[in-house]
Amino acid sequence: MTSATLQASRELAANGIPLIAATARVPAGLASLRPEIPAFTAAVARIVSALISRLPDVGLAAFDGSGWKITANYLAIRGRRPRAPSRLTSPAELAGAAALALSVCHPSMEAEQLAAELAEAGTTPDDAVLTYGDTRLLDIAPPGVDKASGVARVLEMLGVAPEQTVAFGDAPNDIPLFKLAGHAVAVADAHPEALALATTVTQSVLDDGFSRELQRLQLISPAQTPR
Prior knowledge:
227 residues; alpha/beta; Rossmann fold; Hypothetical Protein, Haloacid Dehalogenase-like Hydrolase, Chain: A, domain 2; 2 domains; six-stranded mixed β-sheet; three-stranded parallel β-sheet; 9 strands; 35% helix
Protein backbone atom coordinates (compact mmCIF):
# COMPACT_ATOMS: atom_id res chain seq x y z
CA MET A 1 0.00 0.00 0.00
CA THR A 2 1.47 3.35 -1.06
CA SER A 3 1.55 6.60 0.88
CA ALA A 4 -0.87 8.09 -1.67
CA THR A 5 -3.35 5.29 -1.02
CA LEU A 6 -3.12 5.84 2.73
CA GLN A 7 -3.53 9.58 2.31
CA ALA A 8 -6.54 9.07 0.04
CA SER A 9 -8.13 6.81 2.66
CA ARG A 10 -7.57 9.43 5.37
CA GLU A 11 -9.06 12.16 3.19
CA LEU A 12 -12.16 10.07 2.45
CA ALA A 13 -12.68 9.74 6.21
CA ALA A 14 -12.15 13.49 6.69
CA ASN A 15 -14.73 14.16 3.97
CA GLY A 16 -17.26 11.87 5.65
CA ILE A 17 -17.14 9.30 2.84
CA PRO A 18 -17.23 5.69 4.16
CA LEU A 19 -14.49 3.35 2.95
CA ILE A 20 -15.51 -0.33 3.00
CA ALA A 21 -12.84 -3.02 2.67
CA ALA A 22 -14.38 -6.08 1.01
CA THR A 23 -11.84 -8.88 1.18
CA ALA A 24 -11.84 -12.57 0.37
CA ARG A 25 -9.42 -13.23 3.22
CA VAL A 26 -10.80 -15.11 6.21
CA PRO A 27 -9.09 -14.01 9.43
CA ALA A 28 -9.48 -15.86 12.70
CA GLY A 29 -11.38 -12.83 13.99
CA LEU A 30 -14.31 -13.91 11.84
CA ALA A 31 -15.24 -16.23 14.72
CA SER A 32 -17.14 -13.40 16.38
CA LEU A 33 -19.50 -13.26 13.38
CA ARG A 34 -20.00 -17.00 13.11
CA PRO A 35 -23.70 -17.09 14.22
CA GLU A 36 -24.56 -14.75 11.34
CA ILE A 37 -22.68 -16.63 8.60
CA PRO A 38 -24.39 -19.68 7.13
CA ALA A 39 -22.52 -22.95 7.07
CA PHE A 40 -23.11 -25.34 4.18
CA THR A 41 -22.36 -28.77 5.58
CA ALA A 42 -24.33 -30.82 3.04
CA ALA A 43 -22.81 -29.03 0.08
CA VAL A 44 -19.32 -29.40 1.59
CA ALA A 45 -19.67 -33.18 1.58
CA ARG A 46 -20.79 -33.25 -2.05
CA ILE A 47 -18.12 -30.80 -3.21
CA VAL A 48 -15.27 -32.53 -1.38
CA SER A 49 -16.39 -35.95 -2.62
CA ALA A 50 -16.61 -34.69 -6.20
CA LEU A 51 -13.16 -33.13 -6.05
CA ILE A 52 -11.47 -36.15 -4.50
CA SER A 53 -13.02 -38.57 -6.99
CA ARG A 54 -12.12 -36.43 -10.01
CA LEU A 55 -8.80 -34.99 -8.79
CA PRO A 56 -7.00 -37.25 -6.28
CA ASP A 57 -4.13 -34.75 -5.89
CA VAL A 58 -6.40 -31.85 -4.91
CA GLY A 59 -5.60 -29.86 -1.76
CA LEU A 60 -8.49 -28.93 0.52
CA ALA A 61 -8.99 -26.56 3.43
CA ALA A 62 -12.14 -25.69 5.39
CA PHE A 63 -12.67 -22.68 7.65
CA ASP A 64 -15.15 -23.13 10.52
CA GLY A 65 -15.02 -19.67 12.06
CA SER A 66 -12.16 -20.28 14.45
CA GLY A 67 -9.52 -21.94 12.28
CA TRP A 68 -8.68 -24.06 9.26
CA LYS A 69 -8.80 -27.81 8.74
CA ILE A 70 -6.31 -28.58 5.97
CA THR A 71 -5.32 -31.73 4.14
CA ALA A 72 -1.73 -32.86 3.65
CA ASN A 73 -2.02 -32.17 -0.10
CA TYR A 74 -3.12 -28.60 0.59
CA LEU A 75 -0.09 -28.00 2.79
CA ALA A 76 2.26 -29.59 0.23
CA ILE A 77 0.90 -27.50 -2.64
CA ARG A 78 0.78 -24.22 -0.74
CA GLY A 79 4.06 -24.79 1.07
CA ARG A 80 2.81 -23.07 4.21
CA ARG A 81 -0.05 -23.11 6.65
CA PRO A 82 -2.81 -20.44 6.67
CA ARG A 83 -2.16 -17.46 8.90
CA ALA A 84 -5.12 -18.35 11.10
CA PRO A 85 -4.93 -21.38 13.44
CA SER A 86 -4.95 -24.65 11.49
CA ARG A 87 -4.62 -28.39 11.90
CA LEU A 88 -4.11 -31.27 9.50
CA THR A 89 -7.08 -33.47 8.76
CA SER A 90 -8.13 -36.18 6.32
CA PRO A 91 -10.36 -35.46 3.32
CA ALA A 92 -13.00 -37.77 4.86
CA GLU A 93 -13.09 -35.80 8.11
CA LEU A 94 -13.16 -32.52 6.24
CA ALA A 95 -16.10 -33.71 4.13
CA GLY A 96 -18.16 -34.38 7.24
CA ALA A 97 -17.49 -31.06 8.97
CA ALA A 98 -19.48 -27.84 8.94
CA ALA A 99 -17.67 -25.05 7.12
CA LEU A 100 -18.10 -21.35 6.46
CA ALA A 101 -15.69 -21.43 3.52
CA LEU A 102 -13.56 -23.83 1.52
CA SER A 103 -10.24 -23.25 -0.21
CA VAL A 104 -9.08 -25.58 -2.98
CA CYS A 105 -5.76 -25.89 -4.80
CA HIS A 106 -4.12 -28.34 -7.19
CA PRO A 107 -0.52 -29.01 -8.27
CA SER A 108 -1.19 -28.23 -11.94
CA MET A 109 -4.67 -26.70 -12.25
CA GLU A 110 -5.72 -23.11 -11.68
CA ALA A 111 -8.85 -21.90 -9.92
CA GLU A 112 -10.83 -21.43 -13.11
CA GLN A 113 -10.17 -25.04 -14.10
CA LEU A 114 -11.13 -26.30 -10.64
CA ALA A 115 -14.39 -24.37 -10.85
CA ALA A 116 -15.08 -25.94 -14.24
CA GLU A 117 -14.49 -29.41 -12.77
CA LEU A 118 -17.04 -28.75 -10.03
CA ALA A 119 -19.55 -27.33 -12.48
CA GLU A 120 -19.15 -30.44 -14.63
CA ALA A 121 -19.71 -32.53 -11.50
CA GLY A 122 -23.05 -30.80 -10.96
CA THR A 123 -22.23 -28.03 -8.47
CA THR A 124 -24.61 -25.08 -8.98
CA PRO A 125 -25.03 -21.60 -7.42
CA ASP A 126 -27.66 -23.19 -5.17
CA ASP A 127 -24.88 -25.32 -3.66
CA ALA A 128 -22.11 -22.74 -3.31
CA VAL A 129 -20.42 -19.65 -4.72
CA LEU A 130 -17.28 -20.54 -6.69
CA THR A 131 -14.84 -17.71 -7.24
CA TYR A 132 -11.26 -16.61 -6.75
CA GLY A 133 -8.97 -13.66 -6.18
CA ASP A 134 -5.78 -15.69 -6.47
CA THR A 135 -5.63 -17.79 -9.64
CA ARG A 136 -3.97 -20.60 -7.65
CA LEU A 137 -6.83 -20.93 -5.14
CA LEU A 138 -10.53 -21.61 -5.69
CA ASP A 139 -12.69 -20.02 -2.97
CA ILE A 140 -15.98 -21.73 -2.15
CA ALA A 141 -18.62 -20.00 -0.02
CA PRO A 142 -22.24 -20.69 0.95
CA PRO A 143 -24.90 -19.71 -1.62
CA GLY A 144 -25.41 -15.96 -1.81
CA VAL A 145 -22.29 -15.14 0.21
CA ASP A 146 -19.84 -12.94 -1.71
CA LYS A 147 -18.28 -9.50 -1.56
CA ALA A 148 -21.46 -7.84 -2.80
CA SER A 149 -23.66 -9.43 -0.13
CA GLY A 150 -21.36 -8.17 2.60
CA VAL A 151 -21.08 -4.67 1.16
CA ALA A 152 -24.83 -4.45 0.56
CA ARG A 153 -25.42 -5.18 4.23
CA VAL A 154 -22.99 -2.45 5.31
CA LEU A 155 -24.52 0.04 2.87
CA GLU A 156 -27.95 -0.66 4.34
CA MET A 157 -26.58 0.02 7.82
CA LEU A 158 -25.04 3.28 6.58
CA GLY A 159 -28.14 4.33 4.66
CA VAL A 160 -26.21 4.58 1.40
CA ALA A 161 -27.72 3.48 -1.93
CA PRO A 162 -25.54 1.12 -4.02
CA GLU A 163 -25.74 3.46 -7.01
CA GLN A 164 -23.92 6.09 -4.94
CA THR A 165 -20.87 3.88 -4.48
CA VAL A 166 -17.52 3.42 -6.21
CA ALA A 167 -16.01 -0.09 -6.20
CA PHE A 168 -12.37 -0.96 -6.93
CA GLY A 169 -11.24 -4.46 -7.89
CA ASP A 170 -9.21 -6.68 -10.18
CA ALA A 171 -10.40 -10.28 -9.82
CA PRO A 172 -13.41 -12.50 -10.56
CA ASN A 173 -14.46 -12.33 -6.91
CA ASP A 174 -14.96 -8.57 -7.43
CA ILE A 175 -17.54 -9.08 -10.19
CA PRO A 176 -20.60 -9.20 -7.86
CA LEU A 177 -19.32 -5.99 -6.27
CA PHE A 178 -18.95 -4.36 -9.70
CA LYS A 179 -22.56 -5.29 -10.50
CA LEU A 180 -23.73 -3.76 -7.22
CA ALA A 181 -21.85 -0.45 -7.36
CA GLY A 182 -22.83 2.63 -9.29
CA HIS A 183 -19.24 3.08 -10.55
CA ALA A 184 -16.89 0.10 -11.00
CA VAL A 185 -13.15 0.68 -11.29
CA ALA A 186 -10.78 -2.05 -12.48
CA VAL A 187 -7.11 -1.53 -11.71
CA ALA A 188 -4.40 -2.20 -14.27
CA ASP A 189 -3.83 -5.86 -15.22
CA ALA A 190 -7.23 -6.86 -13.85
CA HIS A 191 -8.82 -10.16 -14.89
CA PRO A 192 -10.62 -9.89 -18.27
CA GLU A 193 -14.02 -10.55 -16.64
CA ALA A 194 -13.48 -7.66 -14.24
CA LEU A 195 -12.30 -5.39 -17.07
CA ALA A 196 -15.41 -6.21 -19.08
CA LEU A 197 -17.71 -4.96 -16.31
CA ALA A 198 -15.68 -1.94 -15.25
CA THR A 199 -16.95 1.58 -15.78
CA THR A 200 -13.36 2.84 -15.66
CA VAL A 201 -9.86 1.33 -15.77
CA THR A 202 -7.18 2.99 -13.66
CA GLN A 203 -3.52 2.43 -12.86
CA SER A 204 -2.29 -0.32 -10.57
CA VAL A 205 -2.32 0.03 -6.80
CA LEU A 206 1.46 0.53 -6.81
CA ASP A 207 0.99 3.32 -9.36
CA ASP A 208 -1.60 4.96 -7.08
CA GLY A 209 -4.59 4.01 -9.21
CA PHE A 210 -6.88 4.20 -6.17
CA SER A 211 -6.04 7.80 -5.33
CA ARG A 212 -5.86 8.89 -8.98
CA GLU A 213 -9.41 7.71 -9.70
CA LEU A 214 -10.77 9.29 -6.51
CA GLN A 215 -9.16 12.55 -7.60
CA ARG A 216 -10.69 12.25 -11.06
CA LEU A 217 -14.09 11.75 -9.45
CA GLN A 218 -13.40 14.79 -7.23
CA LEU A 219 -13.89 12.77 -4.06
CA ILE A 220 -10.48 13.83 -2.75
CA SER A 221 -8.27 16.81 -3.46
CA PRO A 222 -5.31 16.38 -5.83
CA ALA A 223 -3.31 18.88 -3.78
CA GLN A 224 -3.46 16.62 -0.71
CA THR A 225 -2.26 13.46 -2.45
CA PRO A 226 1.50 13.42 -3.14
CA ARG A 227 2.86 12.19 -6.45
